[in-house]
Amino acid sequence: MNLSSLTHPSSSHILLLFLSIATLQGLKGTLGACHVDDEAGLLGFKSGISQDPSGMLSSWKPGTDCCKWAGVECRIGNRVTTISLYGQPDKPNSFLSGTISPSLVKVQNIDGIYFQDLRNMTGTFPDLLFGLPKLQFVYIRNSKLSGPIPEKIGKLAQLGALSLGGNRFTGSIPNSIAELTQLTQLDLSQNLLTGTIPVGIQHLKSLDLLYLHHNQLSGPIPDFFSSFTELRILKISYNKFTGQIPPSISSLAPTMTYLELGHNSLTGKIPDFLGQFKKLDTLDLSSNRLSGTVPKSFANLTKIFNLDLSRNLLVDPFPLMNVKGIESLDLSYNRLHLNQIPPWVATSPIIYSLKLAGCGLKLNLNDWKPTETYFYDYIDLSDNEISGSPVSLLNRTDYLVGFWASNNQLKFDMGKLRIVKTLKHLDLSKNLVYGNVPKEVTGLEKLNVSSNHLCGQLPATKFPASSFVGNDCLCGPPLSPCKKV
Q1: What are the entry keywords (predicted)?
Q2: Are 160 and 184 in contact (CB under 8 A)?
Q3: Which of 49, 47, 69 minimizes the C-alpha distance to 59?
Protein backbone atom coordinates (compact mmCIF):
# COMPACT_ATOMS: atom_id res chain seq x y z
CA MET A 1 0.00 0.00 0.00
CA ASN A 2 1.24 3.46 -0.93
CA LEU A 3 1.14 5.50 2.31
CA SER A 4 1.30 8.77 0.42
CA SER A 5 -2.03 8.03 -1.28
CA LEU A 6 -3.63 7.98 2.16
CA THR A 7 -2.14 11.22 3.34
CA HIS A 8 -2.35 13.05 -0.01
CA PRO A 9 -5.68 12.22 -1.76
CA SER A 10 -5.70 12.39 -5.56
CA SER A 11 -7.72 14.93 -7.53
CA SER A 12 -10.22 12.18 -8.40
CA HIS A 13 -10.78 11.53 -4.68
CA ILE A 14 -11.37 15.24 -4.07
CA LEU A 15 -13.81 15.44 -6.99
CA LEU A 16 -15.69 12.41 -5.66
CA LEU A 17 -15.85 14.02 -2.19
CA PHE A 18 -17.27 17.26 -3.59
CA LEU A 19 -19.85 15.37 -5.62
CA SER A 20 -20.90 13.42 -2.52
CA ILE A 21 -21.30 16.61 -0.48
CA ALA A 22 -23.28 18.28 -3.27
CA THR A 23 -25.55 15.23 -3.52
CA LEU A 24 -26.13 15.22 0.22
CA GLN A 25 -26.89 18.93 0.22
CA GLY A 26 -29.32 18.43 -2.62
CA LEU A 27 -31.01 15.61 -0.75
CA LYS A 28 -31.11 17.74 2.38
CA GLY A 29 -32.81 20.54 0.44
CA THR A 30 -35.37 18.08 -0.92
CA LEU A 31 -36.02 16.60 2.51
CA GLY A 32 -36.34 20.04 4.11
CA ALA A 33 -39.07 21.30 1.77
CA CYS A 34 -42.60 20.45 2.77
CA HIS A 35 -44.56 17.76 0.98
CA VAL A 36 -46.27 18.79 -2.25
CA ASP A 37 -49.70 17.71 -0.95
CA ASP A 38 -49.29 19.79 2.20
CA GLU A 39 -48.28 22.85 0.19
CA ALA A 40 -51.32 22.40 -2.08
CA GLY A 41 -53.64 21.98 0.88
CA LEU A 42 -52.35 25.09 2.65
CA LEU A 43 -52.42 27.22 -0.50
CA GLY A 44 -55.98 26.00 -1.08
CA PHE A 45 -56.84 27.23 2.40
CA LYS A 46 -55.25 30.59 1.64
CA SER A 47 -57.29 30.86 -1.58
CA GLY A 48 -60.45 30.73 0.57
CA ILE A 49 -59.36 33.82 2.50
CA SER A 50 -60.78 37.06 1.13
CA GLN A 51 -59.26 39.44 3.67
CA ASP A 52 -56.01 39.32 5.62
CA PRO A 53 -55.30 42.94 6.57
CA SER A 54 -52.52 42.15 9.04
CA GLY A 55 -50.66 39.85 6.65
CA MET A 56 -51.11 36.74 8.76
CA LEU A 57 -50.58 34.55 5.67
CA SER A 58 -48.07 36.79 3.87
CA SER A 59 -45.31 34.16 4.16
CA TRP A 60 -47.49 31.49 2.50
CA LYS A 61 -45.97 31.66 -0.99
CA PRO A 62 -45.87 28.93 -3.65
CA GLY A 63 -42.48 27.32 -4.17
CA THR A 64 -41.18 28.13 -0.70
CA ASP A 65 -40.84 25.68 2.18
CA CYS A 66 -44.29 25.58 3.79
CA CYS A 67 -42.74 24.18 6.98
CA LYS A 68 -41.31 27.66 7.48
CA TRP A 69 -44.57 29.53 6.87
CA ALA A 70 -46.02 31.51 9.77
CA GLY A 71 -48.27 29.33 11.89
CA VAL A 72 -47.17 26.06 10.26
CA GLU A 73 -45.22 23.35 12.05
CA CYS A 74 -43.64 20.17 10.69
CA ARG A 75 -42.65 17.79 13.47
CA ILE A 76 -42.37 14.66 11.32
CA GLY A 77 -39.86 15.11 8.51
CA ASN A 78 -41.29 17.37 5.85
CA ARG A 79 -44.95 16.76 6.75
CA VAL A 80 -47.14 19.51 8.21
CA THR A 81 -48.48 18.49 11.62
CA THR A 82 -50.07 21.64 13.06
CA ILE A 83 -51.59 24.90 11.81
CA SER A 84 -51.82 27.69 14.36
CA LEU A 85 -53.37 30.99 13.30
CA TYR A 86 -54.15 33.47 16.06
CA GLY A 87 -55.84 36.84 15.75
CA GLN A 88 -55.13 39.51 18.32
CA PRO A 89 -58.41 40.84 19.77
CA ASP A 90 -56.83 44.14 20.82
CA LYS A 91 -55.75 44.86 17.22
CA PRO A 92 -58.67 45.70 14.87
CA ASN A 93 -56.83 44.54 11.73
CA SER A 94 -55.77 41.19 13.14
CA PHE A 95 -58.39 38.91 11.59
CA LEU A 96 -59.12 36.67 8.60
CA SER A 97 -62.25 36.81 6.45
CA GLY A 98 -63.30 33.88 4.32
CA THR A 99 -64.12 30.20 4.63
CA ILE A 100 -62.19 27.12 5.71
CA SER A 101 -61.33 25.48 2.38
CA PRO A 102 -61.95 21.72 2.04
CA SER A 103 -58.50 21.49 0.45
CA LEU A 104 -57.02 21.30 3.94
CA VAL A 105 -57.94 17.62 3.82
CA LYS A 106 -54.78 17.15 1.71
CA VAL A 107 -52.70 17.85 4.81
CA GLN A 108 -53.10 14.25 5.96
CA ASN A 109 -50.57 14.25 8.80
CA ILE A 110 -52.10 17.14 10.65
CA ASP A 111 -52.86 16.48 14.32
CA GLY A 112 -53.74 20.00 15.47
CA ILE A 113 -55.77 22.88 14.01
CA TYR A 114 -55.69 26.08 16.03
CA PHE A 115 -57.78 28.88 14.47
CA GLN A 116 -58.30 31.25 17.37
CA ASP A 117 -59.71 34.79 17.39
CA LEU A 118 -59.75 34.99 13.60
CA ARG A 119 -63.16 36.67 14.09
CA ASN A 120 -64.46 36.71 10.52
CA MET A 121 -64.38 33.13 9.24
CA THR A 122 -67.79 32.03 7.98
CA GLY A 123 -69.42 28.83 6.79
CA THR A 124 -70.63 25.68 8.49
CA PHE A 125 -68.81 23.09 10.55
CA PRO A 126 -65.85 22.06 8.33
CA ASP A 127 -66.54 18.56 7.01
CA LEU A 128 -62.89 18.20 5.99
CA LEU A 129 -62.11 17.38 9.65
CA PHE A 130 -63.63 13.94 9.13
CA GLY A 131 -60.98 13.19 6.49
CA LEU A 132 -57.97 13.84 8.74
CA PRO A 133 -57.16 10.51 10.45
CA LYS A 134 -54.46 11.87 12.78
CA LEU A 135 -56.40 14.90 14.01
CA GLN A 136 -56.36 15.20 17.81
CA PHE A 137 -56.84 18.88 18.63
CA VAL A 138 -59.41 21.23 17.09
CA TYR A 139 -59.60 24.83 18.29
CA ILE A 140 -61.78 26.97 16.03
CA ARG A 141 -62.74 29.72 18.45
CA ASN A 142 -64.16 33.22 18.22
CA SER A 143 -65.24 33.45 14.61
CA LYS A 144 -68.54 33.30 12.73
CA LEU A 145 -69.09 29.65 11.87
CA SER A 146 -72.79 28.81 11.91
CA GLY A 147 -75.33 26.07 11.37
CA PRO A 148 -75.65 22.86 13.38
CA ILE A 149 -72.86 20.80 14.86
CA PRO A 150 -73.18 17.63 12.72
CA GLU A 151 -74.63 14.52 14.26
CA LYS A 152 -71.67 12.52 12.93
CA ILE A 153 -69.31 14.47 15.23
CA GLY A 154 -68.87 11.18 17.10
CA LYS A 155 -66.75 9.90 14.20
CA LEU A 156 -63.91 12.14 15.40
CA ALA A 157 -63.33 9.60 18.16
CA GLN A 158 -59.59 10.25 18.29
CA LEU A 159 -60.00 13.90 19.40
CA GLY A 160 -58.41 14.95 22.67
CA ALA A 161 -59.76 18.52 22.55
CA LEU A 162 -62.71 20.10 20.73
CA SER A 163 -63.11 23.84 21.13
CA LEU A 164 -65.74 25.65 19.06
CA GLY A 165 -66.50 28.48 21.49
CA GLY A 166 -67.45 31.95 20.34
CA ASN A 167 -69.13 31.07 17.04
CA ARG A 168 -72.77 30.99 15.91
CA PHE A 169 -73.59 27.30 15.96
CA THR A 170 -77.29 26.53 16.39
CA GLY A 171 -79.44 23.51 17.20
CA SER A 172 -78.84 20.95 19.89
CA ILE A 173 -75.66 19.27 21.04
CA PRO A 174 -75.52 15.98 19.07
CA ASN A 175 -75.97 12.78 21.09
CA SER A 176 -73.01 11.23 19.27
CA ILE A 177 -70.69 13.59 21.13
CA ALA A 178 -70.75 10.82 23.74
CA GLU A 179 -68.44 8.82 21.42
CA LEU A 180 -65.58 11.31 21.83
CA THR A 181 -64.32 9.42 24.84
CA GLN A 182 -60.72 10.64 24.47
CA LEU A 183 -61.70 14.27 25.05
CA THR A 184 -60.04 16.13 27.90
CA GLN A 185 -61.48 19.50 26.81
CA LEU A 186 -64.91 20.28 25.37
CA ASP A 187 -65.75 23.92 24.70
CA LEU A 188 -69.05 24.75 22.97
CA SER A 189 -69.51 28.05 24.80
CA GLN A 190 -70.76 31.35 23.41
CA ASN A 191 -72.86 29.93 20.61
CA LEU A 192 -76.62 29.72 20.02
CA LEU A 193 -77.13 26.10 21.06
CA THR A 194 -80.53 24.99 22.35
CA GLY A 195 -82.07 21.90 23.91
CA THR A 196 -80.74 19.96 26.87
CA ILE A 197 -77.33 18.62 27.79
CA PRO A 198 -77.07 15.11 26.31
CA VAL A 199 -76.84 12.57 29.11
CA GLY A 200 -74.22 10.78 27.01
CA ILE A 201 -71.67 13.43 27.96
CA GLN A 202 -71.21 11.37 31.13
CA HIS A 203 -69.18 8.94 29.01
CA LEU A 204 -66.49 11.59 28.51
CA LYS A 205 -64.79 10.49 31.71
CA SER A 206 -61.44 12.08 30.90
CA LEU A 207 -62.82 15.62 30.72
CA ASP A 208 -60.70 18.19 32.51
CA LEU A 209 -62.67 21.17 31.18
CA LEU A 210 -66.32 21.51 30.13
CA TYR A 211 -67.51 24.88 28.75
CA LEU A 212 -71.16 25.23 27.75
CA HIS A 213 -71.71 28.78 29.03
CA HIS A 214 -73.44 31.56 27.08
CA ASN A 215 -75.85 29.42 25.07
CA GLN A 216 -79.61 28.85 25.26
CA LEU A 217 -79.53 25.39 26.81
CA SER A 218 -82.48 24.49 29.03
CA GLY A 219 -83.98 21.85 31.28
CA PRO A 220 -82.44 20.50 34.46
CA ILE A 221 -78.69 20.06 34.81
CA PRO A 222 -78.16 16.28 34.44
CA ASP A 223 -77.21 14.46 37.64
CA PHE A 224 -74.31 12.62 36.04
CA PHE A 225 -71.20 14.22 37.50
CA SER A 226 -70.07 11.18 39.47
CA SER A 227 -68.68 9.91 36.14
CA PHE A 228 -66.04 12.65 36.04
CA THR A 229 -62.91 12.06 38.06
CA GLU A 230 -60.68 14.64 36.36
CA LEU A 231 -63.02 17.61 35.86
CA ARG A 232 -61.44 20.84 37.13
CA ILE A 233 -63.43 23.50 35.31
CA LEU A 234 -67.21 23.49 34.75
CA LYS A 235 -68.79 26.56 33.19
CA ILE A 236 -72.47 26.32 32.29
CA SER A 237 -73.55 29.84 33.25
CA TYR A 238 -75.71 32.10 31.03
CA ASN A 239 -78.20 29.47 29.91
CA LYS A 240 -81.78 28.63 30.85
CA PHE A 241 -81.24 25.73 33.22
CA THR A 242 -83.93 25.04 35.81
CA GLY A 243 -84.27 22.88 38.90
CA GLN A 244 -81.81 22.35 41.70
CA ILE A 245 -78.04 21.98 41.73
CA PRO A 246 -77.66 18.20 41.18
CA PRO A 247 -76.30 16.15 44.12
CA SER A 248 -73.67 14.39 41.99
CA ILE A 249 -71.75 17.67 41.65
CA SER A 250 -70.50 16.82 45.16
CA SER A 251 -68.26 14.15 43.58
CA LEU A 252 -66.23 16.92 41.92
CA ALA A 253 -64.94 18.25 45.25
CA PRO A 254 -61.44 16.70 45.01
CA THR A 255 -60.60 18.29 41.64
CA MET A 256 -62.87 21.28 40.98
CA THR A 257 -61.25 24.73 40.80
CA TYR A 258 -63.81 26.70 38.74
CA LEU A 259 -67.57 26.16 39.11
CA GLU A 260 -69.79 28.62 37.28
CA LEU A 261 -73.57 28.05 37.29
CA GLY A 262 -74.66 31.69 37.27
CA HIS A 263 -77.33 33.39 35.15
CA ASN A 264 -79.75 30.50 34.92
CA SER A 265 -83.07 29.81 36.68
CA LEU A 266 -81.85 27.38 39.34
CA THR A 267 -83.92 27.01 42.50
CA GLY A 268 -83.58 25.43 45.92
CA LYS A 269 -80.84 25.92 48.47
CA ILE A 270 -77.11 26.19 47.97
CA PRO A 271 -75.92 22.65 48.77
CA ASP A 272 -73.89 22.25 51.94
CA PHE A 273 -71.42 20.02 50.06
CA LEU A 274 -70.00 23.02 48.17
CA GLY A 275 -68.15 23.86 51.37
CA GLN A 276 -66.02 20.76 50.77
CA PHE A 277 -64.61 22.12 47.49
CA LYS A 278 -61.35 23.11 49.14
CA LYS A 279 -59.49 23.67 45.84
CA LEU A 280 -62.15 26.07 44.60
CA ASP A 281 -60.79 29.28 43.08
CA THR A 282 -64.05 30.59 41.58
CA LEU A 283 -67.69 29.95 42.52
CA ASP A 284 -70.40 31.75 40.56
CA LEU A 285 -74.03 31.07 41.45
CA SER A 286 -75.27 34.56 40.58
CA SER A 287 -78.59 35.54 38.99
CA ASN A 288 -80.55 32.43 39.86
CA ARG A 289 -83.44 31.88 42.28
CA LEU A 290 -81.49 30.17 45.03
CA SER A 291 -83.00 30.62 48.48
CA GLY A 292 -82.26 29.95 52.15
CA THR A 293 -78.98 30.66 53.89
CA VAL A 294 -75.45 30.35 52.62
CA PRO A 295 -74.12 27.12 54.20
CA LYS A 296 -71.89 27.41 57.27
CA SER A 297 -69.57 24.96 55.50
CA PHE A 298 -68.40 27.88 53.33
CA ALA A 299 -66.00 28.57 56.19
CA ASN A 300 -63.90 25.77 54.64
CA LEU A 301 -63.40 27.68 51.38
CA THR A 302 -60.13 29.21 52.51
CA LYS A 303 -58.59 29.32 49.03
CA ILE A 304 -61.48 30.92 47.16
CA PHE A 305 -60.56 34.03 45.20
CA ASN A 306 -63.78 34.82 43.35
CA LEU A 307 -67.21 34.42 44.97
CA ASP A 308 -70.38 35.63 43.27
CA LEU A 309 -73.72 34.87 44.93
CA SER A 310 -75.45 38.06 43.75
CA ARG A 311 -79.06 38.41 42.62
CA ASN A 312 -80.60 35.43 44.37
CA LEU A 313 -83.06 35.09 47.27
CA LEU A 314 -80.51 34.35 50.00
CA VAL A 315 -81.27 35.34 53.59
CA ASP A 316 -79.39 35.95 56.85
CA PRO A 317 -77.20 34.98 58.49
CA PHE A 318 -74.18 35.07 56.21
CA PRO A 319 -71.58 32.61 57.52
CA LEU A 320 -68.21 33.49 58.98
CA MET A 321 -65.55 32.78 56.38
CA ASN A 322 -61.83 32.15 56.69
CA VAL A 323 -60.74 33.52 53.34
CA LYS A 324 -57.06 34.39 53.21
CA GLY A 325 -57.19 36.69 50.18
CA ILE A 326 -60.37 37.33 48.20
CA GLU A 327 -59.97 38.90 44.73
CA SER A 328 -63.60 39.58 43.90
CA LEU A 329 -66.76 39.36 46.00
CA ASP A 330 -70.35 40.01 44.90
CA LEU A 331 -73.24 39.45 47.30
CA SER A 332 -75.44 42.19 45.83
CA TYR A 333 -79.22 42.14 45.78
CA ASN A 334 -80.17 39.22 47.95
CA ARG A 335 -82.16 39.49 51.18
CA LEU A 336 -79.10 39.89 53.36
CA HIS A 337 -78.58 42.40 56.16
CA LEU A 338 -74.82 42.37 56.65
CA ASN A 339 -74.65 45.69 58.58
CA GLN A 340 -70.87 45.72 58.15
CA ILE A 341 -68.48 44.80 55.37
CA PRO A 342 -67.07 41.35 56.31
CA PRO A 343 -63.69 41.70 58.09
CA TRP A 344 -61.94 39.23 55.75
CA VAL A 345 -62.65 41.67 52.92
CA ALA A 346 -60.78 44.49 54.68
CA THR A 347 -57.73 42.31 55.33
CA SER A 348 -57.42 40.92 51.80
CA PRO A 349 -54.17 42.12 50.17
CA ILE A 350 -55.32 41.31 46.62
CA ILE A 351 -58.98 42.36 46.33
CA TYR A 352 -59.90 44.24 43.16
CA SER A 353 -63.71 43.95 42.98
CA LEU A 354 -66.14 44.50 45.87
CA LYS A 355 -69.87 44.55 45.14
CA LEU A 356 -72.22 44.67 48.12
CA ALA A 357 -75.16 46.61 46.65
CA GLY A 358 -78.41 46.22 48.56
CA CYS A 359 -76.80 44.15 51.32
CA GLY A 360 -78.20 46.09 54.30
CA LEU A 361 -74.89 47.79 55.13
CA LYS A 362 -75.05 50.34 57.95
CA LEU A 363 -71.64 51.88 58.44
CA ASN A 364 -69.74 55.13 58.30
CA LEU A 365 -67.31 54.86 55.41
CA ASN A 366 -64.77 56.95 57.32
CA ASP A 367 -64.45 54.05 59.75
CA TRP A 368 -63.79 51.40 57.11
CA LYS A 369 -60.06 51.14 56.57
CA PRO A 370 -59.08 48.25 54.30
CA THR A 371 -55.49 47.03 54.46
CA GLU A 372 -54.91 47.40 50.73
CA THR A 373 -56.68 49.57 48.14
CA TYR A 374 -54.07 49.54 45.38
CA PHE A 375 -55.70 46.83 43.24
CA TYR A 376 -59.32 48.02 43.44
CA ASP A 377 -61.01 48.17 40.02
CA TYR A 378 -64.70 48.02 40.96
CA ILE A 379 -66.58 49.02 44.11
CA ASP A 380 -70.39 48.89 44.25
CA LEU A 381 -72.02 49.91 47.54
CA SER A 382 -75.32 51.14 46.07
CA ASP A 383 -78.67 50.93 47.88
CA ASN A 384 -77.44 50.68 51.45
CA GLU A 385 -77.44 52.96 54.51
CA ILE A 386 -73.83 54.10 54.32
CA SER A 387 -72.82 57.49 55.68
CA GLY A 388 -69.55 59.40 55.79
CA SER A 389 -67.17 60.09 52.93
CA PRO A 390 -65.51 57.86 50.32
CA VAL A 391 -62.74 60.41 49.70
CA SER A 392 -60.04 58.79 51.83
CA LEU A 393 -60.85 55.39 50.29
CA LEU A 394 -61.01 56.43 46.65
CA ASN A 395 -58.06 58.79 46.84
CA ARG A 396 -55.90 55.76 47.67
CA THR A 397 -56.89 53.89 44.51
CA ASP A 398 -54.80 54.36 41.37
CA TYR A 399 -56.58 52.00 38.97
CA LEU A 400 -60.26 52.34 39.87
CA VAL A 401 -62.58 51.74 36.90
CA GLY A 402 -66.01 51.96 38.52
CA PHE A 403 -67.49 53.29 41.78
CA TRP A 404 -71.22 52.99 42.43
CA ALA A 405 -72.73 54.27 45.67
CA SER A 406 -76.17 55.61 44.77
CA ASN A 407 -79.00 55.75 47.31
CA ASN A 408 -76.95 56.09 50.49
CA GLN A 409 -76.25 58.98 52.91
CA LEU A 410 -72.74 59.86 51.79
CA LYS A 411 -71.82 63.44 52.71
CA PHE A 412 -68.63 64.99 51.34
CA ASP A 413 -67.24 67.73 49.11
CA MET A 414 -67.07 66.31 45.58
CA GLY A 415 -64.32 68.78 44.72
CA LYS A 416 -61.97 66.86 47.01
CA LEU A 417 -62.49 63.59 45.16
CA ARG A 418 -59.52 62.54 43.03
CA ILE A 419 -60.74 61.32 39.65
CA VAL A 420 -58.07 58.89 38.44
CA LYS A 421 -57.47 58.48 34.71
CA THR A 422 -58.68 54.88 34.71
CA LEU A 423 -62.12 55.76 36.15
CA LYS A 424 -64.94 55.17 33.64
CA HIS A 425 -68.10 54.83 35.76
CA LEU A 426 -69.11 57.02 38.71
CA ASP A 427 -72.56 56.97 40.33
CA LEU A 428 -73.08 59.10 43.44
CA SER A 429 -76.77 59.81 42.85
CA LYS A 430 -79.26 60.12 45.73
CA ASN A 431 -76.78 61.09 48.44
CA LEU A 432 -75.83 64.27 50.33
CA VAL A 433 -72.85 65.24 48.19
CA TYR A 434 -72.04 68.97 48.02
CA GLY A 435 -69.51 71.29 46.36
CA ASN A 436 -68.69 71.61 42.65
CA VAL A 437 -68.52 68.99 39.92
CA PRO A 438 -64.78 68.73 39.09
CA LYS A 439 -63.70 69.17 35.46
CA GLU A 440 -61.94 65.76 35.54
CA VAL A 441 -65.33 64.02 35.10
CA THR A 442 -65.09 64.83 31.39
CA GLY A 443 -62.96 61.71 30.95
CA LEU A 444 -65.66 59.36 32.30
CA GLU A 445 -67.90 57.13 30.17
CA LYS A 446 -70.84 57.24 32.57
CA LEU A 447 -71.65 59.72 35.34
CA ASN A 448 -74.64 60.18 37.63
CA VAL A 449 -74.56 62.77 40.42
CA SER A 450 -78.29 63.55 40.37
CA SER A 451 -80.29 64.22 43.55
CA ASN A 452 -77.52 65.70 45.70
CA HIS A 453 -76.59 69.19 46.94
CA LEU A 454 -74.06 70.14 44.28
CA CYS A 455 -73.70 73.70 43.09
CA GLY A 456 -71.89 75.85 40.53
CA GLN A 457 -71.22 75.77 36.80
CA LEU A 458 -70.85 72.38 35.16
CA PRO A 459 -67.74 71.58 33.14
CA ALA A 460 -68.37 70.90 29.44
CA THR A 461 -69.34 67.21 29.21
CA LYS A 462 -71.21 64.80 26.95
CA PHE A 463 -73.55 63.63 29.74
CA PRO A 464 -77.34 64.18 29.57
CA ALA A 465 -79.29 66.40 31.95
CA SER A 466 -80.46 63.30 33.85
CA SER A 467 -76.91 62.94 35.17
CA PHE A 468 -77.20 66.25 37.04
CA VAL A 469 -80.88 66.96 37.85
CA GLY A 470 -82.13 67.36 41.41
CA ASN A 471 -79.20 69.32 42.79
CA ASP A 472 -79.30 72.65 44.63
CA CYS A 473 -77.79 75.04 42.14
CA LEU A 474 -75.94 73.36 39.27
CA CYS A 475 -76.07 75.32 36.04
CA GLY A 476 -74.72 75.35 32.52
CA PRO A 477 -75.26 72.89 29.65
CA PRO A 478 -77.05 70.48 29.64
CA LEU A 479 -78.93 72.28 32.48
CA SER A 480 -80.21 75.88 32.50
CA PRO A 481 -77.70 78.66 31.83
CA CYS A 482 -75.87 80.10 34.83
CA LYS A 483 -77.17 83.45 36.03
CA LYS A 484 -74.90 86.39 35.36
CA VAL A 485 -73.75 88.14 38.52
Answers
A1: Kinase, Leucine-rich repeat, Membrane, Receptor, Repeat, Signal, Transferase, Transmembrane, Transmembrane helix
A2: yes
A3: 69
